[in-house]
Specification:
- InterPro entries: 7-in-absentia-prot_TRAF-dom, SINA-like_animal, Sina-like_RING, TRAF-like, Znf_RING, Znf_RING/FYVE/PHD, Znf_SIAH.
- The structure is a single chain.
- The protein is α+β, with helices and mostly antiparallel strands.
- The protein has two domains: 66 residues, Zinc/RING finger domain, C3HC4 (zinc finger) (Herpes Virus-1, 2-Layer Sandwich), CATH 3.30.40; 157 residues, Apoptosis, Tumor Necrosis Factor Receptor Associated Protein 2, Chain A (Sandwich).
- The protein has seven helices and 15 strands.
- Bound molecules: zinc ion (4 copies).
- The site of one zinc ion (ZN) has 7 residues, from helix 5.
């Protein structure tokens, strides 16, 4: 008898789990027709007759096949984009939200929210083509940024894409009128484990122009939503009394540097 590898065995089971209508892998609940043919729950709602024998469907489920479906390893939904992860059905939601091959949103500040969705490696190209106002940030020099007309009474969120070291990052900023607080976070776009290859440092300027209040952290990974990031306490933030203490008229000035660890 020829030897079957575990992966081949897994794939042969996956073949049995293919829905005859949509060709996707079926998972619980799986329904049956009168003659024992299977159908996935989504297709079950859309078709009235079995595609194999044209007979009626039953309300009965194929429990044995549902149990089997839980034991099989499935490929990620983003396999076509390059993800090679295989996982149990139960791990799908968690992986989908973190998969580095998923579709990303564009957060770039502009008149209207940007509708673009795409792969992370297409993001820079999209920004260059569509968004004209861009932030220039230098790799080796600390970058001096000025928040003009800084108004603590108006909540606003700004995101800008940074392109440094051949990598891309989001610079997220928020003024929260409710919390009377200003937030700044730099988020690395790419594999989660690579976000700790970079640090960012924020130095706020005092009224006399000296840079004193300092914050330093690894860049954040791209799994966390920016709102969660602001709330997490892991990013740079300033309370209103401190802002009042250092703001120059209505301009808040800061130095931002992003540094890469050299091996
Ligand atoms: Zn189906
Ligand atoms: Zn049938
Ligand atoms: Zn994936
Ligand atoms: Zn965009």
């Amino acid at each position: 008898m020829s030897k079957l590898s575990l992966y081949d065995f897994n794939d042969s089971i996956l073949g049995l789990l293919e829905c005859p209508v949509c060709m996707d892998s079926m998972c619980s609940p799986i329904y049956l027709c009168k003659n024992g043919h299977n159908i996935c729950s989504e297709c079950r709602q859309q078709v009235t007759k079995c595609s194999t024998c044209r007979d009626e469907f039953l309300a009965t489920r194929n429990i044995a096949l549902e149990n089997l479906a839980e034991k099989v390893l499935y490929s990620c939904d983003n396999a076509d984009a390059g993800c090679s992860e295989k996982m149990f059905m139960i791990d799908f939601p968690d992986h989908n939200s973190k998969c580095p091959y998923r579709l990303y949103d564009c957060h770039q500040m502009g008149e209207d929210p940007c509708e673009w969705k795409g792969h992370r490696w297409d993001l820079l190209d999209h920004i260059n083509k569509v968004h004209t106002r861009k932030l220039k940030v230098d790799e080796n020099e600390p970058n001096i940024l000025h928040w003009k007309n800084f108004n603590i009474n108006e909540t606003c969120v700004y995101s800008q894409l940074l392109s440094l070291y051949g990598e891309i990052f989001w610079l997220h900023e928020k003024i929260s009128a409710e919390e009377k607080r200003y937030y700044l976070a730099v988020q690395y776009i790419g594999l989660t484990e690579d976000s700790t290859n970079f640090t960012y440092k924020v130095e706020f300027a005092s009224k006399c122009g000296a840079y004193e209040v300092t914050f330093k952290s690894f860049t954040h990974n791209d799994v966390e939503e920016k709102t969660a990031l602001f709330q997490s306490g892991k990013c740079a933030s300033l309370e209103y009394p401190m802002i009042q203490h250092i703001i120059n008229g209505t301009t808040l000035s800061l130095k931002l540097s992003v540094t890469k660890f050299e091996e």
